């Protein structure tokens, strides 16, 4: 088989090489550097492969250990190298590869290898760049700004509404929203972008599984919408299951595809912090939405802020990064808000933290009947929302209604730019 | 020699007259019992023989046959011991047969001849009355409940010898009289709302629920007092009427749960079966079904804690009783109907760990919560009109020793007033409470003015209500108006009804 030259097109050689996802990426990257193209690797003899992979210092070794110790470790592990050689040998089934590429194309999944001119420019330079991308829909444009919105899966209402508003504002300002299509903040960011009026930029989801899989299941419809409005991107070939180890890895693509990364709600050991460290490594700007001190869901973002991340409290903050100005979000119907006394009492007790009716009752001192009148009125006015059964929060633009805040005497004022 | 006495078998809620026949004739000595008998009844034979011996009656070495007729009705329970013993004694000519006319006997015998109380005496008394019998002889422990039926004479005995004496000389039988009016004075002795601090909204929701017999759902983290609130609810339901008390007592009597020597149960029942309860234990089960928890809670509160932990079967078994206020249990030998006029009070955590939406404590993922809440089917949730969240109180609130919490008695007065309004409104219909107004007649009873209608139209749209939820809001609003004594449902009633409105739960 080694004698045959070019049984495949270049595209097919790349497809074959990317399909070997069980071989660690640094190993594949090194082989590529040494041998040039996947075609060369395909036809290389096992001895040649071994020689290339054997670290310097060992007999016949050509490889210099790299500066990065983690990566160097990979090359010192004989088992991994042997397995890589075996995988390359066993992966050389020509007709199977052609068939796979064909069926994949039929299912609307495109394969963009590193050498393709459509391969995102942003990804070319990042450490650990994917060798090829499997995409459904499209790829983010290289000329348009893009931003990632990432955060906790088990987010709070506050985080979710922040993510939605941010996604919407970014998409409206022409910035591509990149996220991971996971539960919680990711999904909210995508949803916000999809909801944007006159959307000019798409939203793109980077997956931790093959592009033909939907994970998590409940995001099925969101998958379709994101595919239509942007694209689904994965470095894993079709049929790859959503393995836990895939997700931290795909985070480098999320940050890699973006010019800056917005992090909303991250716990202590959140995957979003992995994205943040990738972003730092790639030299991307990090924005973090603050949470209350001591909140479990915000300890990650708060510590990022402490470490010097940019403070993100409204979409305008991040838009200023590109010198863009967004449309101000506000409640349209009621800028001059004058609430009667009880209503005011209830409204001023609410904030972004969900409060139960019982707690509101306790804090306002109203009786149940009056409280009911206030809460239902406020909800129908669209000033408060009930994110969960019997729990209320004020809509996030509450501050809009209050110009000056001084003790209990809050003076409603007209919004500036109206 | 042949003789017969009357007794009765319990079938569902009713008694069925059974004739116990005995025949003593020549032949090889034996003691046989026939007539579709369950094990307990078959075991009567050695009990009766020993009891007779120890009471001083020697059984002749003859062939004794006992038949319980009708022979195709299954007989359960221990109440046939006494009639069998008396039938044998009559067949032995120790008791004159004419003294047994018009008399119904029931009782369990001990080996020494003493009489022990049995279950279902109230139903037996009703059966005796319907069958045209005029007198009943039961163990002393049951004589009070039997005597609640004022149409027949009920007397008691404590030993087989006493029974024989009473049957030999009918003049010595003294019927026990129960003064129903004096019975009715006993009162609720359970938990009182005055012992609960804070929890304004839960109190109010409980009051509304009690006033209109709406089913109530208490949501909240563990240990905040959901059970406590539920326990207080029987105390704010109106005082029992005689008819209600009779029904409660009868069910308890059939289940053998009447305390010995009580005539009537005067407290609203509070039943709190564990969440592992089976469907059969809820609805009533057995070959000849006995009333289950649903019936035992009739006219009172059925409290189901940890609702989503219950089995699917048990949960779905609640649906028909909630709708029809009765349980129909079908068995091979027929179907039996039990009352189920209970008020459902359910309690549950908002997520598997219990602390959602406090994300500092709760790490449940969205699918986990969805799965947890998904155990409750929509049709079941549609039958719960009111839901409320019980919140953990701040320490300060717990510390306040002299909180001015309202006592159950005061709340009950308001509830009774609201019930009175409902009674007048629904006179001549087959339903009693606002919660049971059928959907088609809801506008007739909860008519809205122009501005109210306008408001509800807006609320319907902004809150994304379903038609069912809309109806529930109207029903609850009607109750709130009744509590206030208002004739017309006003906006504020509607708003409060929306606040406590039907649980949506699918929101995450």
TrEMBL record, chain A:
Residues 112-322 form the Smf/DprA SLOG domain. Gene3D superfamilies: 3.40.50.450, Winged helix-like DNA-binding domain superfamily/Winged helix DNA-binding domain. SUPFAM superfamilies: MCP/YpsA-like. Residues 337-386 form the DprA winged helix domain. Transmembrane segments: none annotated. GO terms for biological process: DNA-mediated transformation. Belongs to the DprA/Smf family. This is DNA-processing protein DprA. It comes from Lientehia hominis. The gene is dprA.
TrEMBL record, chain B:
One of its GO terms (molecular function) is ATP binding. Residues 212-394 form the AAA+ ATPase domain. It holds the Pfam family Mg_chelatase. This is YifB family Mg chelatase-like AAA ATPase. Signal peptide: none annotated. InterPro entries: AAA+_ATPase, CHLI-like, Mg_chelat-rel, Mg_chelat-rel_C, Mg_chelatse_chII-like_cat_dom, P-loop_NTPase, Ribosomal_Su5_D2-typ_SF, Ribsml_uS5_D2-typ_fold_subgr. Belongs to the Mg-chelatase subunits D/I family. ComM subfamily. It comes from the Bacteria. PANTHER family: COMPETENCE PROTEIN COMM (PTHR32039:SF7), MAGNESIUM-CHELATASE SUBUNIT CHLI (PTHR32039).
């Amino acid at each position: 088989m080694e004698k045959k030259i070019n049984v495949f097109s270049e595209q097919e050689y790349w497809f074959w090489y990317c399909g070997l996802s069980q071989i660690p990426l640094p190993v594949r990257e090194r082989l590529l550097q040494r041998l040039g193209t996947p075609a060369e690797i395909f036809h290389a003899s096992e001895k040649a492969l071994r020689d290339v992979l054997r670290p310097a210092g060992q007999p016949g070794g050509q490889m210099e250990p790299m500066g990065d110790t983690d990566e160097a470790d990979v090359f010192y592990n004989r088992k991994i190298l042997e397995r890589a050689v075996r995988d390359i040998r066993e992966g050389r089934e020509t007709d199977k590869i052609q068939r796979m590429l064909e069926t994949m194309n039929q299912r609307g999944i495109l394969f963009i290898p590193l050498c393709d001119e459509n391969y995102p420019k942003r990804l070319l330079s990042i450490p650990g760049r994917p060798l090829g991308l499997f995409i459904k829909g499209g790829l983010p444009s290289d000329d348009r700004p893009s931003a990632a919105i990432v955060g906790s899966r088990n987010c709070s209402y506050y985080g979710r509404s922040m993510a939605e508003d941010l996604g919407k504002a970014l998409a409206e300002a022409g910035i591509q929203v990149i996220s991971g299509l996971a539960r919680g903040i990711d999904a909210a960011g995508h949803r916000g972008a999809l909801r944007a009026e006159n959307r000019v930029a798409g939203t793109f989801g980077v997956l931790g599984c093959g592009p033909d899989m939907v994970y998590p299941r409940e995001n099925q419809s969101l998958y379709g919408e994101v595919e239509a409005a942007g694209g689904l991107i994965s470095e894993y070939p079709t049929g790859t299951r959503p393995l836990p180890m895939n997700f931290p890895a795909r985070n480098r693509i999320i940050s890699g595809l973006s010019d800056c990364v917005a992090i909303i709600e991250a716990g202590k050991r959140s995957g979003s912090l992995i994205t943040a460290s990738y972003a730092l490594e790639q030299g991307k700007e990090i924005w973090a939405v603050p949470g209350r001190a001591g909140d479990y869901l915000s300890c990650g973002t708060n510590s990022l802020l402490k470490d010097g991340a940019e403070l993100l409290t409204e979409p305008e903050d991040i838009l200023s990064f590109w010198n863009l100005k967004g449309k101000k979000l506000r409640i349209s119907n009621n800028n001059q808000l004058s609430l009667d006394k009880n209503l005011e009492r209830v409204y001023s007790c609410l904030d972004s933290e969900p409060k139960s009716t019982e707690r509101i009752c306790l804090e306002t001192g109203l009786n149940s009947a009056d409280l009911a009148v206030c809460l239902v009125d406020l909800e129908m006015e669209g000033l408060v929302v009930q994110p969960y059964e019997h729990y209320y929060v004020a809509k996030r633009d509450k501050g809009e209604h209050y110009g000056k805040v001084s003790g209990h005497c809050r003076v409603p004022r007209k919004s500036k730019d109206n | 020699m042949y003789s017969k006495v009357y007794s009765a078998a319990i079938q569902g809620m009713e008694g069925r007259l059974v004739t116990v026949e005995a025949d003593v004739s020549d032949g090889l000595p034996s003691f046989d019992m026939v007539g579709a008998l369950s094990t307990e009844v078959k075991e009567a034979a050695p009990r009766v023989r020993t009891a007779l011996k120890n009471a001083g009656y020697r059984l002749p070495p003859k062939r004794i046959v006992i038949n319980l007729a009708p022979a195709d009705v299954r007989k359960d329970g221990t109440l046939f011991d006494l009639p069998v013993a008396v039938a044998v004694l009559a067949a032995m000519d120790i008791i004159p047969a004419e003294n047994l006319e018009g008399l119904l006997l029931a009782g369990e015998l001990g080996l020494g001849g003493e009489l022990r109380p049995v279950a279902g005496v109230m139903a037996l008394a009703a059966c005796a009355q319907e069958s045209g019998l005029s007198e009943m002889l039961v163990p002393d422990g049951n004589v009070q409940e039997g005597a609640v039926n004022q149409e027949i004479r009920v007397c008691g005995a404590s030993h087989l010898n006493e029974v024989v004496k009473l049957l030999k000389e009918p003049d010595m039988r003294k019927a026990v009289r129960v003064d129903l009016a004096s019975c009715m004075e006993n009162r609720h002795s359970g938990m009182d709302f005055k012992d609960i601090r804070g929890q304004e909204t839960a109190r109010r929701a409980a009051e509304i629920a009690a006033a209109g017999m709406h089913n109530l759902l208490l949501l909240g983290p563990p240990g905040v007092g959901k059970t406590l609130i539920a326990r207080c609810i029987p105390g704010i339901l109106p005082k029992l009427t005689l008819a209600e008390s009779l029904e409660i007592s009868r069910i308890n009597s059939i289940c053998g749960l009447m305390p010995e020597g009580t005539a009537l149960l005067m407290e609203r029942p509070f039943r709190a079966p564990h969440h592992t309860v089976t469907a059969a234990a809820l609805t009533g089960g057995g070959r000849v079904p006995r009333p289950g928890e649903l019936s035992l809670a009739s006219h009172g509160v059925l409290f189901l804690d940890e609702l989503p932990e219950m089995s699917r079967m048990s949960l779905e078994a609640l649906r028909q009783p909630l709708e029809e206020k009765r349980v129909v249990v079908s068995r091979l030998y027929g179907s039996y109907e039990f009352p189920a006029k209970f008020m459902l009070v359910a309690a549950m955590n908002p997520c598997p760990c219990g602390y959602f939406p406090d994300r500092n404590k709760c790490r449940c993922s969205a699918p986990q919560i969805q799965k947890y809440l998904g155990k409750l089917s929509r049709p079941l949730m549609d039958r719960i009109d009111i839901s409320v969240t019980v919140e953990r109180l701040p320490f300060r609130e717990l510390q306040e020793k002299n909180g001015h919490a309202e006592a159950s008695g005061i709340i009950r007065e308001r509830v009774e007033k609201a019930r009175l309004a409902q009674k007048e409104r629904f006179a001549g219909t087959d339903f009693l409470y606002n919660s049971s107004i059928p959907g088609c007649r809801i506008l007739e009873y909860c008519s809205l003015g122009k501005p109210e209608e306008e408001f509800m139209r807006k609320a319907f749209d902004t809150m994304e209500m379903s038609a069912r939820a809309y109806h529930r809001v109207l029903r609850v609003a009607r109750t709130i108006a009744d509590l206030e004594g208002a004739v017309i449902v006003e906006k504020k009633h509607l708003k409060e009804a929306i606040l406590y409105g039907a649980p949506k739960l699918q929101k995450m």
